[in-house]
Design brief:
Radius of gyration: 18 Å
Strand content: 5-15%
Number of strands: 2
Number of domains: 2
Helix content: 55-70%
Shape: elongated
Mean pLDDT: 92
Distance between the termini: 15 Å
Structural class: mainly alpha
């Protein structure tokens, strides 16, 4: 194998992961629902949620969903098996808050609580809010296989 093409663990911050894999996906979903709700179907839902068309059909059958509209899309999203679906489900389970605990963030984003506490100390964040969460993410190191 050519060493220039060898995979390796690369250090990143969770902010980079969040922006690339989570925030971008949520923005795409939000934009689609606002601008093209009539184009919702099994195929577009599959692409937006990163779940198979078969899984969508199974969920539609299980929850008696006859067609996909913004409300049923949300229902499928909450039940889907992809990371983005799970993240939304975990966030809904924790509820909307002004201040999040370390445990909330660890659960929602599947992060190590100690890394969150270390990031809070390093960034001088005393309480986690929607206004400072990206700053916190900037201090959480992650390794990604590339």
């Amino acid at each position: 194998m050519d060493s220039s093409q060898a995979n390796q663990f690369c250090k990143h911050t969770f902010l980079q992961v969040y922006q690339r894999n989570i925030e971008e996906k949520l923005q795409k979903i939000d934009l689609f629902l606002k601008t093209s709700p009539k184009k919702l179907n099994i195929h577009t839902t599959s692409e937006l949620l990163n779940i198979s068309e078969e899984e969508i059909k199974d969920l539609m059958l299980k929850y008696n969903i006859s067609s996909i509209n913004p409300a049923s899309f949300f229902m499928i999203m909450v039940q889907g098996s992809s990371y983005i679906c799970g993240l939304l489900r975990r966030e809904l389970q924790r509820g909307s808050k002004n201040v999040y605990t370390v445990e909330d963030i660890a659960y929602i984003y599947q992060l190590n609580p100690q890394k969150i506490m270390d990031a809070m100390a390093e960034s001088n964040i005393n309480e986690i809010t929607s206004e400072n969460i990206k700053t916190l993410f900037e201090y959480i190191p992650v390794q990604i296989w590339e």
